[in-house]
Design brief:
The protein is built from two helices and eight strands, in the order αββαββββββ. The chain is α+β, with helices and mostly antiparallel strands and about 130 residues long. It has one domain (about 40-130): Ferric Hydroxamate Uptake Protein, Chain A, domain 1. A five-stranded mixed beta sheet has the order 2-1-8-6-7, with helices on one face. A three-stranded antiparallel beta sheet has the order 3-4-5, with helices on one face.
Length: about 130
């Protein structure tokens, strides 16, 4: 009976040590590409970039659009079936002053609405509030 108890105790100790070692090895392994955060940077400026308002790094997923990023991270108002951002954090353009928000992705002026542009990790989104002519 003592032999059976001794064998059982020894096996339990080995199992316990093996589990601890497995956990340690798993945590020491580098993270895979999939587990790394995917982000874009959003720049908010005024007067053709002369006044910096804010810059944020934002997490995204595979199908995140410019509109998704803006809705989830800023207080915005939209127009034209949710395609056009008319106000960001309380700053809205108007026809009297001939001002509006304009945006670009990676330095290229947007030719589609914010809900129609899907972002990729590393993209840079720039919104600028200025006069139009």
């Amino acid at each position: 009976m003592k032999k059976l108890f001794l064998v059982f105790t020894t096996m339990m100790m080995l199992v316990g040590c093996g589990t601890a070692e497995t956990t340690k090895n798993t945590s020491d392994q580098p993270k895979s590409e999939e587990s790394k955060k995917q982000q874009v940077t959003v720049h908010i400026t005024k007067d053709n970039g002369n006044e910096k308002v804010t810059e944020k790094k934002v997490d995204i997923t595979e199908e995140t659009t410019v509109m998704d990023v803006m809705k989830n991270n800023f207080e915005i108002k939209t127009q034209y079936d949710d395609s056009f951002i008319s106000s960001i954090d309380g700053v809205a353009g108007n026809e009297q002053d001939k001002t509006s928000w304009f945006f670009s992705v990676n330095g290229e002026e947007a030719m589609k609405g914010a809900k129609d542009i899907t972002l990729k990790p590393g993209d840079s989104v720039e919104f600028d509030f200025h006069k139009y002519e």
